[in-house]
Design goal:
This is Carboxypeptidase regulatory-like domain-containing protein. About 10% of the residues lie in helices and about 35% in strands. It has one helix spanning about 5-20; strands at about 30-40, 40-45, 45-50, 60, 70, 80, 85-90, 120, 125-130, 130-135. It is globular and about 40 Å long.
């Protein structure tokens, strides 16, 4: 019968305990993003904001009644990937039982959504990014 030397066994156990802590969580570097969206000086409630970095999944938010938003990367992770993002702002449409928009009216001018040229830089830490849109 062969035996595994005790010191090798201890080294193996120690290695298995240490390795999971190496390399970080593997996720992208993030920054939190909050702000306010206004249109012609008035808060813009219930609009969708999408930050698309092009290199990772986008982050999004829906504005509250005062036009405030806070980006979410996933259900559990707030913020956006660090870097330059193309930004899209559009009306949030209620859906019927079949998933079709109830109203197709767009409160936000096309230059901020389908034709958007908005670009914002997200840095690590907290970012306050406000959008003062004009009709």
């Amino acid at each position: 019968m062969t035996t595994f030397p005790r010191h090798k066994f201890c080294c193996l156990i120690l290695t298995l305990l240490i390795l999971p802590g190496c390399g970080g969580d593997g996720g992208p570097e993030m920054g939190t993003v909050t702000g306010t969206v206004t249109l012609d000086g008035e808060p813009l409630p219930n609009v969708q904001i999408l930050f698309n970095p092009g290199t990772a999944r986008p982050s999004e938010a829906i504005t509250d009644e005062s036009g405030r938003y806070e980006l979410q990367y996933t259900h559990d992770i707030k913020g956006a990937v660090v870097g330059t993002h193309r930004v899209f702002i559009s009306s949030r449409h209620e859906l019927d039982d079949e998933g079709n928009p109830v109203s197709k009216d767009e409160a936000v001018p096309a230059k901020y959504n389908s034709e958007s040229t908005l670009s914002e830089e997200v840095t690590s830490g907290h970012n306050e990014i406000n959008f003062d849109l004009e009709s």
